[in-house]
Amino acid sequence: MPTQHTVRSFDKELNCLSKKIAEMGTHAVHMVERSIIAIVHDDKKLAKQVIADDIFLDEAERKIDEEAILIIARRQPMAVDLREIIGAIRISVDLERIGDMGKNIAKRTAILSDVRQADPFYHGLEAFAALALKQLNEVLDAYACCSLGRIDAVREHDDEIDSMYTSLFRELLTYMLEDPCNITVCTHLLFCAKNIERIGDHATNIAETVHYVITGIYPALERPKDDQTYRLGAGK
Amino acid sequence: MPTQHTVRSFDKELNCLSKKIAEMGTHAVHMVERSIIAIVHDDKKLAKQVIADDIFLDEAERKIDEEAILIIARRQPMAVDLREIIGAIRISVDLERIGDMGKNIAKRTAILSDVRQADPFYHGLEAFAALALKQLNEVLDAYACCSLGRIDAVREHDDEIDSMYTSLFRELLTYMLEDPCNITVCTHLLFCAKNIERIGDHATNIAETVHYVITGIYPALERPKDDQTYRLGAGK
Lengths: 236, 236
Known about the structure:
The structure is a homodimer of 236-residue chains.
Chain A lengths: L7 H33 L3 H32 L3 H29 L1 H6 L5 H25 L3 H9 L1 H21 L4 H33 L21
Helix pairs in contact in A: 1-2, 1-3, 1-5, 2-3, 3-8, 5-6, 5-7, 5-8, 6-8, 7-8
């Protein structure tokens, strides 16, 4: 989120902060993408790499925190600059959690390898992850180019994630009810689906933070939310 | 986390911030406690109240953000004061998410009411929630009295949460494998258990933030983590 200041080194510091956020974003997206490839294609080696890669986000989050505090102490920024710095702290928390979601999915690769099921079990998860990552990439682009219009568009697509999550939940529950042999694999896939749904939530959190950074006000608290899985019973 | 300053109104502002965090903490604990009562005792009215109560934490988180930014802009604090303010922002995010966990558990009360099972299905969840809430209360107390020793003790008990989560996951999976009629209720209870495990994670996050506020450095990144559920297959 580039801005212009009379103090050029302050600009540099702020740009450095948003560059670090962009790096975290790229890393988080890449982790989630590879975790899905690992679980869908039963690639345990890739899963291990994803799990090991998580440390980058943990460290990056802390570095952003420390730098943000140093900038505030040194520059005593006001208004939009201060919001930008606080925004970076908040966004780094969401990106670190998205990395955790990728790590969690990757961790399930080993157990799913032992109880491997046919490909159709994994297709829904793949498509769902693609949708959540599209949302996340969109919000990261909108943050980079500081576009309020694009940011608000992300929030409006949140219900697509909820509706796809509900379908996937229903599908996996059906497999479990059809044959108890599917219970273990589907239980783990349900958790993966939940992780992906949370990636969508984090993308929306980031969108709300960016909206706040740009405008100084948070968007209305009630976002559209249509997760029907809390009402799904057996065979429904 | 009370501190002393020459500028008395600054003290007031910082105390006001930590008072708001304490209020959020009490509210979050209360939400989770009642969500468990609702689901265990099939109390749909209580579940609705919990869901409605979540707005308090959403609003409180935003208020803390806004006040923190105002204080930074007005007082230009340094060192521990600045860390305390940034810490309040981070802790409020965790407390808001803990409230979400309570709301998520409460939301499952209605569906579990339709497919009610015998009491033993719920005992594990009740005990697990009690343990997570004990951790959360401990970290909130340690924050209030600014005790580094008590904060670090919380981190050491994190593995108790993981081990209890693993047992509960195993127990619920066994019920599902025994009888397909249990699949729906146990799937929802597994998600409740996961929510409680995340409450434990948030408590640990808060402990790490408080450690940072007090000492200026984050504790070592690798916390003890022994969640075995990623390795649990059918019948294991």
